[in-house]
Design goal:
Helices cover 38% and strands 24% of the residues. 25% of the residues are buried. Helix 2 (40-48) runs parallel beside helix 5 (139-154). Helix 3 (65-70) links the parallel strand 1 (55-60) and strand 2. The chain is α/β, with parallel strands linked by helices and 159 residues long. It has helices at residues 10-28, 40-48, 65-70, 84-94, 139-154; strands at 55-60, 74-76, 100-109, 112-121, 124-132.
């Protein structure tokens, strides 16, 4: 969302923008992750800053997207897990090295891509499934953005 205003003075324009931003923040709440140059990547990285070995990632079908964007230890699974228990086993292997472990599996199902996410925290486990019906060439980027948003919304609850 970009907010612009036209007014007689810069101060009046700033006040219009501030009022509009306040309303938007009230309506969108946690759906807002940053302002100006902040991205999902920088927001999650800021959450992890100063927490050594805070996050490990196990991924399948995402071409190393999360490890690259977060610069964290990433285990890539060679074959698609048949079920979430197989993903959990791979995540368990990562646990001694990280306080939290994110498991992400992106796979094609008929006419859409399905993303399974599991976040194991010391306080418990959170999971989510999301689907995407857009261009297949954008699926990895879509999955990366969704996984980062999932982390953003859940990391403060456990590490």
């Amino acid at each position: 969302i970009r907010i612009t205003a036209k007014a007689g003075t810069l101060e009046e324009a700033d006040q219009l923008i501030a009022n509009t931003e306040k309303v938007i923040r009230q309506r969108l709440g946690a759906d807002i992750y940053g302002v100006d140059a902040e991205t999902l990547d920088t927001t999650v990285l800021a959450m992890l800053a100063g927490k050594e070995n805070a996050l490990g990632v196990v991924e399948f079908g995402m071409q190393g997207e999360l490890g690259r964007r977060l610069n964290v230890t990433c285990m890539q699974i060679d074959s698609v897990p048949n079920n979430l228990d197989e993903l959990r086993k791979a995540m368990h292997a990562m646990q001694p090295r990280a306080a939290a472990v994110l498991g992400a599996v992106l796979r094609k199902e008929e006419d859409r891509q399905v993303l399974n996410l599991i976040l194991h925290l010391p306080s418990g486990e959170v999971q989510n499934t999301r689907s995407y019906g857009g261009p297949p060439t954008m699926a990895v980027q879509w999955a990366g953005n969704n996984a980062l948003d999932f982390l953003r919304r859940n990391l403060n609850n456990g590490i």
